[in-house]
Specification:
Layout (H helix, E strand, L loop, with lengths): L1 H22 L8 H16 L30 H5 L1 H9 L5 H5 L2 H19 L4 H14 L1 H5 L6 H23 L5 H14 L10 H8 L6 H28 L2 H10 L6 H9 L6 H4 L6 H10 L4 H21 L18 H6 L2 H8 L5 H23 L4 H12 L5 H6 L10 H4 L5 H6 L9 H4 L3 H19 L6 H23 L10 H13 L5 E4 L6 H7 L6 E3 L21 H4 L2 H10 L6 E5 L11 H9 L1 E8 L4 E6 L14 E6 L4 E7 L4 E2 L4 E10 L11 E7 L5 E7 L15 E10 L7 E11 L4 E2 L12 E8 L1
Parallel strand pairs: 1-2, 1-3, 8-15
Antiparallel strand pairs: 3-5, 4-5, 6-7, 7-9, 9-12, 10-11, 10-13, 13-14, 13-15
Length: 795
């Protein structure tokens, strides 16, 4: 009966926290670490790799081994693996986004941590109510709440090590009572090995685990069993480290990290983590200050094991992260000390004696008022962190830096040496502490999803329902418990489903962009196995496709081109007439490695021929080095262009084309062509053809940008495939051709999938698009206004 009651309370606690966390859910990446981790999770879901495809531009260019196109995740992958069920749901349920759904991960994880903490308190001998209070305090009055909305690995790591310690506690307590329970020890060892896949810092908890695991020694025989258990535990750890760790490259990363230890930030980090007003554990979770009272009570009661354990864990984490992270000890953009998040539930354990004293009414009214005040303040700190975007704080520091700049304001805007920065003033100066500054930024647009998307009419009523059901279950109903649990489960599913659907067309994901949706709809209708999607750069549609694309073919983001103008009609970063110099150095390697792995490329760009002041070097590079298959979607702000990924012949001559011709069209002579894949094809295949033009003079024609039409016809003269337009994918304007110059025009013609077997001639025409008239052509196999240059055979 007691077990059933506790299970009900845990269910109610889980439902309550999931609902509250969903009320503050943002559903979007705030840091690059989150984007990289999601990218790896998506790649693992899509093709069982950890490739960084979407977000590869967040990693600097380097030479990758073999034929690897992009780098892989350079951190422990467990969260990527465990996110797959959420991504599967998002991919198969219409109206919910991929990225938005992945951001539910830590909502569930953090609620589970609170449930484990509840059972932990009971295991330590405290009452159900005291354990429940501490679990709620952890869930709502510490940074755990703020991290439930982020996609960091810290919550998962926290859950794993908390289960590990809970297992050790159950094993040791049973051992102290004269029993040897193997299962809890096995669970603890397994979770420790699993922790290696979550965070490198898993080894930092080993000293604390030894404190928890070491039983009270009474008999020499028991001493031998203790030693045996500890050795077995360490043996399992070592096996896991060297077997699993080495297979995943984790061991190498550990060795590399420990080979470059940096002690220079130890003092600054230790002071920051432990006593600073702007970066310490207590500054962002003031309620944990009450743990000192609990620790004092435990010491007086001679139950100091967890006081020692928490102290040891605090020391190892503070020293370990200070040494391992060095300059990055503060953890980047986050709410509070990110690397100290796993410490929080263990410090919260020290609140248990205080909660028990309050329930037993052993605390004076004045003291109780102070305790309640600290709890309320701690909850308020979390609310500030949740309601205000994390960007508001660094943006404020930057604006203050510029406003108070003692030198040139442009220097202060770009040089960290002249700025107010988080890891200095933000740690110690009361004017620039994150909780204080953020509290002053409440007028900043809220990052909370239902507020940003005006979805209160959907989310609030369902949330009130699930909160009410959760509270009823927590209140220990004697009847209808099964019905209440089923009702809560249905309520949570309804809340998440309808809530996520109400956030779907999120403006922060460009969810109302009709042009982007037309591109995506076209892709969904035409993608085939082996196709690859290429984004022009990460500036415009990256988040849109990360959230809304649900296909099984990979999307790669191409790197920024330094030859593109970031501001129209302003100089680019690199000014050169050499196209290869205008694109990113990595592009040629990336495309060369991607080419043999792709059947077709679908290039997505926010720029077009009429985009004012844009040069489009990446698109130009594709047209010059590969085969242009035409625009599938053409809009002013979103275009979808098809390419055949076969590498085209070089732009320069020699080498000359495999098939030589002499067909004079007036403005240029077609001197030859290459059919890279020969003359034999199957229905549905792409025919890549590269024409080589030679321009001498305009003769009797006025200079004009004529178009080239390459057509494949059947025996009845009906067009079956065609590619028509300005040469070189729109970049080969004939008015720019110089006398005596040679110019390649690479075109890809897609054969219909139901094309009947037979022979099909290829025609080439040059025409004036203003009046749709074809220019006359002279030479072998010419027929007035066109020439037949080859015949392909379809099997």
């Amino acid at each position: 009966m007691i077990t059933h009651r506790r299970w009900l309370r845990a269910v109610g606690l889980f439902g309550l926290l999931v609902t509250i966390y969903f009320l503050t859910y943002t559903g979007q990446a705030i840091t690059s670490d989150e984007s990289l981790l999601f990218d790896a999770a998506h790649s693992f879901f899509q093709n069982r790799t950890l490739d960084i495809a979407y977000a590869n531009t967040l990693r600097p260019y380097n030479t990758l081994p073999g034929d690897q196109v992009v780098t892989t995740l350079d951190s422990e992958p467990l969260q990527a693996y465990l996110s797959v069920p959420l991504l599967w749901i998002a991919a198969h349920v219409p109206g919910i986004g991929m990225m938005q759904t992945a951001w539910l991960f830590n909502i569930f994880v953090t609620a589970l941590i609170a449930c484990v903490l509840y059972y932990f308190g009971i295991q330590l001998g405290y009452s159900d109510n005291a354990a429940l209070i501490v679990a709620l305090v952890y869930g709502l009055a510490t940074t755990a709440w703020a991290y439930s909305r982020l996609y960091f690995r810290e919550p998962l790591f926290t859950l794993i090590i908390l289960i590990c310690v809970y297992g050790l506690e159950r094993w040791r307590s049973s051992f102290d009572n004269g029993k040897f329970r193997f299962l809890p020890l096995l669970v603890a060892a397994f979770m420790l090995i699993v922790a290696l896949l979550a965070k490198q810092a898993s080894l930092l908890i080993v000293p604390m685990l030894l404190v928890v695991a070491f039983p009270r020694v009474r008999l020499s025989r028991r001493s031998a069993l203790i030693l045996l258990g500890v050795l077995a535990f360490l043996l399992i750890l070592l096996i896991g480290y060297f077997v699993i760790g080495s297979r995943l490259g984790i061991a190498i990363r550990f060795q590399d990290r420990f080979a470059t230890l940096d002690f220079s930030y130890l003092g600054a980090a230790a002071a920051g983590y432990l006593i600073s007003p702007g970066a310490s554990i207590w500054a962002f979770s003031p309620v944990l200050l009450l743990s000192f009272i609990g620790a004092y009570s435990l010491i007086r009661a001679r139950r100091e094991r967890y006081v020692i354990a928490v102290l040891v864990m605090t020391i190892t984490f503070v020293v370990g992260y200070a040494i391992l992270q060095g300059t990055n000890w503060i953890g980047g953009k986050a709410w509070g000390p990110r690397y100290m998040v796993p410490l929080v539930p263990f410090i919260a354990i020290l609140l248990l004696p205080l909660a028990e004293s309050i329930l037993a009414r052993r605390v004076k009214i004045a003291t109780l008022a102070v305790i309640v005040g600290i709890v309320v303040q701690s909850v308020f700190v979390q609310v500030v962190g949740l309601m205000v975007p994390l960007d508001a704080y660094p943006n404020y520091l930057l604006s203050e830096s510029i406003a108070l700049c003692p030198v040139d304001k442009a220097i202060c805007a770009s040089d960290l040496a002249h700025q107010i920065v988080v890891w200095q003033d933000g740690v110690w100066n009361p004017l620039y502490l994150a909780p204080i500054v953020s509290a002053d930024q409440f007028d900043t647009p809220s990052p909370i999803a239902w507020i940003a998307n005006s979805s209160s009419g959907v989310v609030i009523p369902l949330s009130l329902l699930t909160i009410a059901l959760s509270l009823v279950i927590i209140a220990e109903p004697r009847k209808l418990s099964r019905i209440l649990v089923l009702s809560l489960s249905a309520g949570l599913v309804a809340l998440l489903f309808f809530g996520m659907r109400s956030f779907y067309y999120d403006l922060r994901y460009d969810g109302t962009n009709d042009a982007a949706w037309k591109v995506l709809d076209s892709l969904d209708a035409q993608l085939q196995p082996g196709d690859t999607i290429l984004l022009n750069d990460p500036s415009t549609y990256l988040n849109f496709f990360m959230n809304y694309y649900k296909g099984s073919e990979s999307i790669y983001t191409l790197p920024y081109a330094p030859g593109e103008r970031s501001v129209p009609d302003q100089p680019a970063e690199i000014e050169t007439s050499n196209l290869d110099g205008q694109v990113n150095t990595y592009l040629s390697i990336m495309l060369a490695r991607l080419s043999p792995k792709s059947a077709r490329w679908w290039f997505i760009s926010q720029y077009g021929p009429y985009s004012q002041g844009r040069l489009r070097p990446t698109e130009h590079y594709l047209a010059q080095h590969y085969y242009y298959g035409g625009e599938v979607v053409s809009q002013s702000t979103a275009r979808l262009v098809l390419y055949d990924p076969t590498h085209a012949p070089p732009e320069v001559v020699p080498p000359w084309p495999a098939q030589t011709l002499s067909l004079d069209y007036g403005p240029a002579t077609l001197v030859g062509f290459d059919l890279t894949r020969g003359l034999d094809y199957k229905a549905g295949q792409t025919v890549p053809i590269s024409l080589l033009w030679h321009h001498e003079a305009w003769g009797n024609l006025a200079p004009f940008n004529y178009s080239v039409n390459v057509t494949i016809l059947n025996s009845a003269g009906v067009t079956v495939a065609q590619q028509s337009g300005t040469p070189s994918g729109g970049f080969g304007l004939m008015t720019t051709w110089v006398d005596g110059g040679y110019y390649r025009d690479n075109k890809a013609l897609v054969l219909p999938p139901n094309l009947a077997p037979g022979d099909y001639p290829i025609w080439v025409l040059v025409f004036d698009w203003r009046n749709s008239t074809n220019l006359s052509v002279t030479g072998e196999n010419s027929a007035g206004d066109h020439a037949v240059i080859a015949t392909i055979h379809v099997k």
